[in-house]
Amino acid sequence: MSLHKAVMDGNLEEVHGLLLDEQVDVNELQDGWSPLHLAAHFGHTELVALLLKNGADVQLKSHNEMANTPLHAAAANKSNRQEMLLLLVSHGASINEKQSGGWTVLHQAAHHNDPEMLLFYLDHGADPFTAKDDGKTALELAEEEGCEDAASVLRNYTLNKI
């Protein structure tokens, strides 16, 4: 079984065994994704911790059209993303890292009208003034898309920072 497949399956025992093999590259990309991207996306916290312990690159960008990091992949997971994001940030992931189009996790939460995650990101250092490649901040994106809950959170937060 490949490391990528074992990670997607959430098979901790198999991943641990594969990592003992010196021929296995913990940062190998398959379809553009590293094992860490996949573990983060699928919410496998124990696997993320194990991969990080074994040298997984928390800043590695995917080699596909998304050009994202494991942090972005974790943000797309709905089940345990706060725990996952804290783990990744504690290992050096940047909460303000941009993916394709200049999107940050803050932009993503604004786009999904997710006030809980917006507050979480802001509390953990997300910069509300960062703009995507088109020049839009998360607030401008939320306002443009009619995401009122998100816009309200971002408006209040940014007004308190001025």
Write a structural description.
This protein has 162 residues and is mainly α. The protein has 2 domains: 1-94, Alpha Horseshoe (Serine Threonine Protein Phosphatase 5, Tetratricopeptide repeat); 95-162, Serine Threonine Protein Phosphatase 5, Tetratricopeptide repeat (Alpha Horseshoe). The protein has 10 helices and no strands.
Q: What's the quick description here?
A:
The protein is mostly helical and 162 residues long. The protein has 10 helices and no strands.
Draw up the topology in text.
Layout: H1 3-9, H2 12-19, H3 35-41, H4 45-53, H5 70-75, H6 81-90, H7 105-111, H8 115-123, H9 138-144, H10 148-161
- So, CATH architecture of the largest domain? Alpha Horseshoe
Cα distance spanning the termini:
53 Å
Calculate the mean pLDDT score and round it.
95
State the CATH class of the largest domain.
Mainly Alpha
Count of domains: 2
- The name of the CATH superfamily of the largest domain reads Ankyrin repeat-containing domain
Might you state the CATH topology name of the largest domain?
Serine Threonine Protein Phosphatase 5, Tetratricopeptide repeat
**Which value, in Å, is the CA radius of gyration?**
17 Å
What form results from the Cα inertia axes? Answer: elongated
The percent range for strand residues is: under 5%
Structural class: mainly alpha
SSE run? HHHHHHHHHH
Largest sheet: none
Percent of residues in helical segments?
40-55%
Total strands: the figure is: 0
User: Which ranges are low-confidence, i.e. pLDDT below 50, for 5 or more consecutive residues?
Assistant: none
Counted by DSSP, the helix tally is 10
